[in-house]
Specification:
This protein has about 50 residues and is mostly helical. The chain has two helices and no strands.
């Protein structure tokens, strides 16, 4: 498995892999999902702070 180049701690990475395994998802699909969620939260925070 190729480690994605995003800045997360080793511990977070390990728990993400475990979570992906429990969900029977490929880890990269799980990461894509997390990145999407993080991206949406970031946009939401920007909108919240600009209003």
């Amino acid at each position: 498995m190729v480690r994605p180049k995003i800045n997360i701690s080793e511990q977070a990475y390990a728990s993400l892999k475990e979570q992906a395994r429990l969900n029977n998802q490929s880890p990269s699909a799980y990461f894509a999902e997390l990145l999407l969620i993080g991206y949406q939260q970031k946009i939401y925070q920007q909108q919240a702070s600009s209003s």
